[in-house]
Structure formats: C-alpha cells, structure tokens
Write a structure and sequence with these properties.
This protein is mainly α. Helix content is about 85%, strand content about 0%.
C-alpha cells in the first residue's frame, strides 16, 4: 500500500503556491497603485503646478510591503538564483544533498530577517514614528512586513521538507533497485536450470 505522505506533501505544495501567488498579486496591486499615483503627481506638477501631497510618504511604505509580498512566492517557486554544480561533479544524490543544505541555509537567513523586521517595527512603534507629510504611523506597515516575512519563513520550511522528502524518496528507490536485482538474478538462474537439465537429458538419450 502506497504511503499517503507524498500526496499530503503535494497538496501542501499546491496550497502554498496558490496562497503565495495570491499574496504576490496584492503586492503587484500596491505597486500599480503607487505607479498610478506617481504618474498623476507628475502630470499635475507639470500641467497645474499642483502636486499630490504625500505621494512619497505612501510610496516608501507601499514599496516595503509590496517587496515583502513577493518574497514567499519566490521561495515557494524556487525562483531565486541558484548555481548547481554538485550534480555534475558528484552525482544526482550529492546535488540533492546540496539543495537540502541550501534550503536550510535560506531558512536560517529568512528567520533572522523576520526577527530583525519585528525588532525594527517595535522600535518604530515605541518612537511613534510617522511619515513627514501625511503623518501616517509607519509601525503598522513594518509589522505587516515582519508578518509577511514570518510567512516566508514558513514557506521556506515547506520547501525544506519537500527537498528532504525528495532526497528520502531517491534513497528508497535506490534501496528497492538494489534489493530487486539479486531477486531477478536468482529467478533467472532458477528458470535456466531446468532448461539446461533438459538439454543434457536429450544428449544422453541420443
């Protein structure tokens, strides 16, 4: 009976892809809104000498949130820049080990980033920091960035589990192949023995 673990991992990966892509759409929408405001601000400055107040304030906050929204999908789709050479030098299994270790290292880095963002948001909250023009409190936006980075940590944990599961499945396939080879050899030997005996009997009768 096949283990349900691969099916569960596939469902988790699919749910992660759907969720992270939806989050990246929100980030893209924030960037599009910022681009529209920047374009309108430039046109109003040129045509009517009446700029939109606070566009830079909104921009500094929107960009931080939008970039954070794109982190989880980049990790889930494994679209970060990678240089793979262990597979060509030491074989596929060594390459899978290297991928697993790289996923673990990314998980550690993302955890440190989430922790630092949370500390930064706490400092801004204690100082009651606001934007220059619109006086918007900036701490909630950086708390949002920190929470999204925590989500990215969870996504990277899923990626690490998937890499380890792939490594384990490769090991099990190798074990199955190694155990099936002696069995097939023994079967071929046992089937060839009667035929050789029959041939010797025919020779004796002749």
């Amino acid at each position: 009976m096949q283990s349900p673990a691969p099916l569960v991992l596939a469902l988790i990966e699919r749910a992660g892809l759907i969720g992270t892509r939806a989050l990246s759409v929100l980030g893209l929408a924030a960037l599009m809104l910022l681009a529209s405001l920047t374009l309108a601000d430039g046109l109003l400055r040129w045509l009517a000498n009446q700029p939109i107040e606070g566009v830079r304030d909104i921009g500094s906050l929107a960009i931080a949130v939008a970039i954070a929204c794109c982190l989880p999908v980049g990790l889930m789709e494994r679209s970060n820049i990678t240089i793979r050479f262990f597979s060509s030098l030491a074989g596929q299994r060594a390459g899978q080990w290297a991928d697993s270790m790289a996923s673990l290292l990314i998980l550690v880095v993302m955890t440190g980033m989430a922790w630092q963002f949370m500390l930064h948001a706490g400092k801004l909250a204690r100082a009651s920091e606001t934007t220059w023009v619109l006086k918007i409190p900036v701490a909630p936006f950086w708390y949002a960035v920190a929470c999204i980075t925590v989500l990215a940590v969870l996504v990277q944990l899923i990626v690490l589990i998937l890499d380890v599961a792939q490594l384990a499945s490769h090991r099990s396939l190798l074990g199955t192949a190694s155990t099936s080879a002696p069995a097939s050899t023994a079967a071929s030997t046992s089937t060839s023995a009667p035929s050789s005996a029959t041939a010797s009997d025919k020779a004796a009768l002749e």
